[in-house]
Structure prediction request, 486 residues.
Amino acid sequence: MADPKGFLTTGREVAQTRPVDERVKDWNEVYVPGSLLPIISKQAGRCMDCGIPFCHNGCPLGNLIPEWNDYAYRQDWREASERLHATNNFPEFTGRLCPAPCESACVLGINQPAVTIKNVEVTIIDKAWDAGDVTPQPPERLSGKTVAVIGSGPAGLAAAQQLTRAGHTVAVYERADRIGGLLRYGIPEFKMEKRHINRRIEQMRAEGTKFRTETEIGRDIDAAKLRKRYDAVVIAAGATTSRDLPAPGRELNGIHFAMEYLPLANKVQEGDLTTAPITAEGKHVVVIGGGDTGADCVGTAHRQGAASVTQLEIMPKPGDDRNANQPWPTFPMLYKVTSAHEEGGERIYSVSTTHFEGDEDGNVQWLHLIEVEFKDGKLEQKPGTERKIPAQLVTLAMGFTGTDQKNGLVEQFGLELDERGNIARDADFATNVPGVFVAGDAGRGQSLIVWAIAEGRSAARGVDRYLAGASELPAPIRPTDRALMV
Prediction:
C-alpha cells in the first residue's frame, strides 16, 4: 500500500488548466505543462489498496491501478510504466481522452472525491516517454502469417500492435491521409496534441507494423480481394455514420455534421490548410448535442473566433451528485464542465429543434426550438415555449448510428449485421466470414476509447488463435461485455 493514511490526509487535486484568455488563442493542450509532477505522488498515495479494487470493474482494460499508483507514489516511474503497459497499449491517449469510468468506480468515491487515476496515468506515461522507457518491442520470430487491419483508430492500432508483437506481419489500412482515425481528425489538438499519435506510430513501425494511408477498403481495394491476399483481416473501421436531424431547413448552407467540421480544423493544425473551409469566425454557432463531440465543437468554435456559441441538449440537465438509481460503482450521468465549457458559451437543456430558417441565399440564419419534457417515458413538447436563436453555423453532434455501409465493405465481404446494425461477431470477435474479425465501434457501436483499445486487444487474441491454433495474448473483454451502468 502506498500511503496508509493518504486518503485521509490528502485532498484531491487535479491538473491545472491554462488561463482561458490565453489558451483560446492557440491550439495547444489546455493543461499547464508540468503542473501534475509536484502533486501527483501524493495523489497516487490516496489509493486505498482496496481488498477488491472496483476501479478494475470500471475499466474494461483491467488496468492494474493500485499497483501503478503504488509505484507512482514511490516515484518509481519505470516500474509504474511497466504495469501501465501491461494492460494498455496507449495510456497517453486514455490519460488525456477517457472520461475515466475507473474513477467513478473508485472505492474512495463512495464518500470522498475519487483518486485522480487519470492524472496519475498520464503522468506515468509522459515520464516514461521523457526517460526513453517506451521502446519498440519487435517479435523474436515471425509466424509467416499476414493480417490486414482496416482502420487506424484505437481499436485498429491496438489489434495491430498486439498481432505484430505476436509475430504476424500486419498492415494497417486507413482511408484518410494520416494514421489515427478519430484520434487524428475527430479529437481537437487542444485535447490531445497529435505528436502523441506520431511517436506511437513510429514505435509500431519500428516493431514491424506497416501502414497504408489513403486506401479505403470497399472503394480503392475490393474487400473480397483483400481477404484472399491476407491470412486474416480485422475490421476496425469504427461507427462513422453520423446521426442526422431531419428537420425542415436541414438542406440550408452552414449546417454540417460535427465530423465534417472538426477534421478541417485539425488539418489546419497539420499545415494542410491555411484556413478551414468551414469556420466559426464571426458567426453565431449552435452545436446540437451535449456529449463530448459537441464539447469539441464548442472549443473549436471558441478558437476560431465565434461571435457566440450555444450548445443544445434534448435531455434534462444532469445533477451534480449521483442519482439514487445510479449508485456507486456504476458510471453516473453527472453535469460535466469540460475545458471547452469553461471558455464560454451557453448550454440549453431540454430543448428540441423544430426547424431552421435561412436567408434569400440559402444560408442558415436562425434555429427554431421548443422546450421538451418526459411524461410517462415519452418526450413531449411544451406548448408556448417556442423561440428562435441566431445560427449562422450549426454542427450536428448527436452521435453515430453504425459503421459505414456506403463504401461497399460490408457487402463485398458478405458480412452479417446484428439487430443494431453493427457487424455481428462471435465470442472470438470473428464474423460469419472465416478469417475476418471485427473490433471496436464497428462491432460494439459508438463507445469509449478504453473499450476500443480493449476490443482491439481481445480481437487480436481471437485472430492469433485462429492463425496459430492457440494464443497467449490477453483478452480483457468479451464482445458481449458492457459498461458498468444501470
Remarks:
- The chain has three domains: 3-129, 144-238+399-466, 243-397.
- DSSP finds 19 helices and 16 strands in the chain.
